[in-house]
Amino acid sequence: MAAHAPLVVVMGVTGSGKSTVGEALSERIGLPFAEGDDFHPPSNIEKMSGGTPLNDDDRLPWLDAIASWLAGRTASGGIISCSALKRRYRDRLAGAVDGLFFLHLDGSPELIGERLEERRDHFMPKGLLRSQFDALEPLTADENGATISVAGPPEGVVQRSLDAIRAPYPLQLAPGVHAYVQPDGGWCLSNAGFVSDGTTTLLVDTAATESRALKLRDTVLASGAPQPTMVVNTHHHGDHTYGNSVFAPAAAVIGHRNCRAEVAANGKQLHLLWPDNDFGEITVNPPNLTYDDTLTLHVGDTEVQLIHPGVAHTTGDTIVWLPQQRVVFTGDLAFHGGSPFIPMGSLTGSLAALDLLRSLGARTVVAGHGSVTDPGVFDATERYLRFVADLAQEGYAAGRTPLEVARTADLGEFAALREPERLAPNLHRAYAELQGRPPGVPLDPLQVFGDMAELNGGTMPTCHA
Ligand SMILES: [Zn+2]
């Protein structure tokens, strides 16, 4: 299972089918499953079997034990059942586990009451069920999760749950500010974001296929925001720019001067790498509004600063920084749960970009790929890049090729990241810098991608879009 596989809390009132659905999901996607009820300390069990309801203080050690089970599975993924009826219980779990997904199994009191009556092993007085419904605080837009109806046959509930776990989702980060996350953040599953005051909408990045871009547009509109009139591209890569054609020409496409040049020069870049993938109707739309160093845009009262960090992930990166909300969209200057990727940019430039990102003082970080996180991702990215630099220095001095070095490298903590095959192209860039070649100078794509495929067992990694 890939790193940063889903971590899911199956929540809902008693009788909603948390264990049944959780176990079925666990079987379908090969993730470990645990019963949240097994994590109660003995004192709680004593209380409950004596008929005394638990209070919030009793629940804290229980929630913390569940959180620590989940936190121990960030690499493998995992599913756990937990009623998590109240927002503050969910906040306690979500605060301890990055990217946690809440799957709320939802049904009317009548339906769930009926199902409980059918289950002879699980006696529950009607009043207790009513008290659960009274306590239930449904998921809100700023929580990461989905509400699934338990009506109909169980196979349908499981399928809908599975679709929800894998589906792209918006996450409200501040009033009018959303991230748009595409799990699990692997190849071509990039993040986007949108900022709106209800009159003007600015979109950050546009996904890799026409159908994903259309879904993104539907999500923006469903939030109540109007059609975007500004689209910012964080860089030229197709998974961030292919969907431009869904939003242009109604929207100005804004990017760094080099991003425009790279989009134009690289054309249908993803088609070359993944000729069999269905990208839909894509036309190449380079930014038609460019800037050099910084550019400030305004969405109502919200200031959106575009900052070019120099050559880093590519030659034309843009950091999208919202100083009032302390939210930053990094593009691929940072990956959350995935390996960084620098063959089209610079290793030293990427480290400098991380310093710049840290200096902003962001509270919330939307990386180019992976779930929404915090500035800790900058440190994780830096550790990986320094590891690449060290490997390159040794390998270069010893006269070994990047592929040889990549093949024998001990990945250590980085083995848990997605896309380990990126080590080969990253070493190519590090070698180029050791040879004194300028940042961002084009490397031979056949060699870079050829070595990556070699490291990946002789085939190109799969595009997941
Ligand atoms: Zn990229």
Automatic annotation (TrEMBL):
Gene3D superfamilies: P-loop containing nucleotide triphosphate hydrolases, Ribonuclease Z/Hydroxyacylglutathione hydrolase-like. It is an enzyme of class 2 (transferase). Its EC number is 2.7.1.12. Pfam families: Lactamase_B, SKI. Keywords: ATP-binding, Gluconate utilization, Hydrolase, Kinase, Nucleotide-binding, Transferase. Pathway: Carbohydrate acid metabolism. This is gluconokinase. It comes from Streptomyces coryli.
